[in-house]
């Protein structure tokens, strides 16, 4: 997958994750620390680093995270781990660590299909959750 498609997919996937985790008012709780964050002001945090392509676009590996935890606290992994287990169950950590070692390469065709899918999802979620908000992007 070329760099332009990677950037485009990263952007739309990040929007999807943050909107997915947001409540009807557009706010989500940081998976790591519980801080309430508006979806436009948070990050899409990866439990397993996004350099592992097999999990880069995994919806379980990626969750809404405050910028402080994601950028300045090295992901707050202990808090993230607790949040993941609460959200998905105790086995999720082992599952992610196993998948971390899988190899994944996306073709341009696959990337374009994923971009289209997540663009539709972002549009749907914005309509569902953010129709009354002035803080939409």
Automatic annotation (TrEMBL):
<dbReference type="Pfam" id="PF05766">
    <property type="entry name" value="NinG"/>
</dbReference>
<protein>
    <submittedName>
        <fullName>NinG protein</fullName>
    </submittedName>
</protein>
<dbReference type="InterPro" id="IPR008713">
    <property type="entry name" value="Phage_lambda_NinG"/>
</dbReference>
